[in-house]
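User: quick one, sequence for these tokens?
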């Protein structure tokens, strides 16, 4: 899991090896 800080607060998301940073930010 990754911890991402955003305006909504810290979010935890499951990241798969096939996912890229670009795809994560596009969501």
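Assistant:
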């Amino acid at each position: 899991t990754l911890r991402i800080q955003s305006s909504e607060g810290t979010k935890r998301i499951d990241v798969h090896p096939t996912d890229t940073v670009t795809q994560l930010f596009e969501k």
